[in-house]
Amino acid sequence: MAYENIIVSTEGGVGLIQLNRPKALNALSTAMVIELNAALDGFEQNDGIGAIIITGNEKAFAAGADVREMKDKTFADVKSENFLHSWDHINNITKPIIAAVSGFALGGGCEFALACDIIIAAETAKFSLPETSLGIIPGAGGTQRLLRALGKAKAMDMILTHRMIDAGEAERSGLVSRVVPADQLMKEALAMAAKIAGLSHPVVKAAKQAVKAAEELPLSAGLKLERDLIHSMFDLHDQKEGMAAFLEKRTPKFENR
Ligand code: CAA
User: Fold this and answer.
1) 113-150 pLDDT per residue, tens
2) Sheet of 178-180: strands edge to edge?
3) Cα 9 to Cα 222: distance, rounded to the nearest angstrom
4) Sequence-ordered list of residues with C-beta below 8 angstroms from that of 98, at least 6 positions apart, any chain
5) Dihedral pair phi/psi, residue 217, rounded to 5°
6) Does residue 32 have its Cβ closer than 6 Å to ligand 1?
7) Does residue 108 have an active-site annotation?
8) Counting atoms of ligand 1 from 1, which one is nearest the CA of 66?
9) Ligand 1 within 6 A of CB of 134
């Protein structure tokens, strides 16, 4: 697929997707989301890729869903096309996805970052859910994922007041895992992704599956899933190799099997 709204590349075992509509601050148009989904599928199917980074540019990760595209839609339009359902596709990706956020991550941009597994932020990053100021509510998972990530108090504050929080507050609140100087963002994100990609892929996928399940399952069911998953690890070559390498004081050579 030829991409017009994103730039797709690889670096070693890391797949990189850069949102690329700078004039619209990377507003997530339908065309961009379709391209993003195709790129994610490409990396999901590529055995050489162990982790994925989604990033924007210095000024914006993404300033939300495309308001120009949405403005004239009617209730019948959004119902019949099931508007925003294509944004859920990211949930099908089993490989870890890192959002490297610089500048604005607003509305759907913030929600898209929240749908990734880890957010690493530049000091310049700003997050908000301004949808209520546009006469709508967050519709790409914001009301659900923000509450789970930050708790009710901060989620309600952000959603009802559309207050913009900076990278420091985002880190203190648990929205982002690390804040780094802006000029180090991609270096740090790539190092993080390369480290994950260097692990055994089935092990990393199982870890992601277990952590994601914690957002959905009651504790007893989550603990059972975790137990089933760790048991299944003992069928892997990489479990034998990882433990042998530890005892032999050498670096493991994982074979993703
Ligand atoms: N959709 C479409 N175009 C957008 C956009 C968006 N979400 N965000 C910015 N743009 C466009 C602007 O219209 C502008 O285009 P023109 O030059 O053609 O006028 C261009 O990007 C640059 O934006 P600004 O001139 O506004 O730049 P600024 O530096 O003055 O302000 C900003 C930056 C504070 C991020 C401001 O652009 C802004 O508030 N953007 C809108 C953010 C927003 O409301 N997002 C939520 C969308 S709703 C949603 O996401 C629903 C959902 O749940 C999925």
Assistant:
1) 999 999 999 999 999 999 999 999 999 999 999 999 99
2) 6-11, 14-19, 51-55, 97-101, 118-122, 178-180
3) 35
4) 51, 52, 53, 54, 116, 117, 118, 119, 120, 189, 192, 193
5) -100, 150
6) no
7) yes
8) 1
9) yes
